[in-house]
């Protein structure tokens, strides 16, 4: 009781000290007047302590509690800053220099009011809960890159709109995403992120670029916008492949590209595959030799695409007709390119390159691995098999060459002895001759008598 009276007297003395007497009026305190004192605290428990201490009070448990299993149902710590973008709040305004670049191309970016996002709060809460949960969040198979959750091979969308020009139908793929370091005299070892991307509209228009920045989102945005400013037009043959076989190189990287028919698909390096999908090429075979750096591969492949020649250009360069044989058309010869002035046989030099593959590859030859003989090459039975096969081992190739060059299968004695032809060819000619003599449009019917 005495302690309470002492505390009350102290509060009263402090209250009288705080009373001020004005010059125009006098404040009088009567003894019978009740004085009410309201106590308030200007600081909060949640403001006084840092975030680490507050989270510790919710997420921690003593060692004895852990042994008893009390740590199973605890709340996991959440990053409340997760999903927040500097400069983009509920108003969703784009600020140059904060949430957008100051200059885009040759245009000065202005403050822009973006459309409202009603699901913004829900997305932020979902993102926080996903990071706080113990389960690993799986990415869709179509959204994954070349290796797990890493950026190379992933799509980052179309480039940003420039004034009234939008990049509809474009897509951007990350080819390389890595950390780079630069030693500074005053800042020491400075760390940045480097991105190398390719963008295209899948219809013959594509470009590539690289960029560096401190933040991951900033470097990806800068790289894809740079690639959109360096677009190149690439001609497509029949809308699905290249015009001809060719060899290209950049640095120590060499690429040998072969034209393929429809249905073949893309059999090539994964970086070349991403470029083909963005350009619009669907059927291709490419072999990479030398250095396998993705930047050199992309640059070499683009150089080869831009150096392609159309059929008429190839025919004009050689001064000869360009004839194509396709297996899907039965290897029937088809003239695809004709020069303005075709040379005669006597005008062709003896040392001139007449092989199409050698001419298309600029005299370069694809490196092939040495084939080692099979394990049964020295066996007795395999030698007997080779002896039996010796008389007809090249028949298939020879037949193919004869059909392409002469249109029929014949030997060196055919001109002297016209009957020196395959039996099927003779029977066919006899049937056609008989048919023309009889004047029948259809094959004659053969009657068969059946004994009863």
Q: How would you sum up this structure, described in words?
A:
One of its GO terms (molecular function) is structural constituent of ribosome. Pfam families: Ribosomal_S5 (PF00333), Ribosomal_S5_C (PF03719), Ribosomal_uS5m_N (PF21251). Keywords: Mitochondrion, Ribonucleoprotein, Ribosomal protein. It comes from Chironomus riparius. This is Small ribosomal subunit protein uS5m. This protein has 452 residues and is of the alpha+beta class. Among the domains are: 79-132, no CATH class; 246-360, Ribosomal Protein S5, domain 2 (2-Layer Sandwich), CATH 3.30.230.10; 395-438, no CATH class. It is 30% helix and 16% strand. The protein has helices spanning 2-18, 45-48, 51-59, 63-67, 120-132, 216-228, 270-279, 294-306, 311-318, 356-360, 380-389, 395-405, 423-438; strands at 93-94, 103-104, 107-108, 112-113, 171-184, 188-200, 205-213, 232-233, 246-250, 253-259, 266-267, 284-290, 322-324, 334-337. The strands form five sheets. A four-stranded antiparallel beta sheet has the order 5-6-7-8, with helices on both faces. Strand 9 (246-250) and strand 10 form a beta hairpin. 14% of the residues are buried. The model is unreliable at 19-33 and 441-452 (pLDDT under 50).
What can be said about this structure in brief?
The chain is of the alpha+beta class. 30% of the residues lie in helices and 16% in strands. The protein has helices spanning 2-18, 45-48, 51-59, 63-67, 120-132, 216-228, 270-279, 294-306, 311-318, 356-360, 380-389, 395-405, 423-438, and strands at 93-94, 103-104, 107-108, 112-113, 171-184, 188-200, 205-213, 232-233, 246-250, 253-259, 266-267, 284-290, 322-324, 334-337.
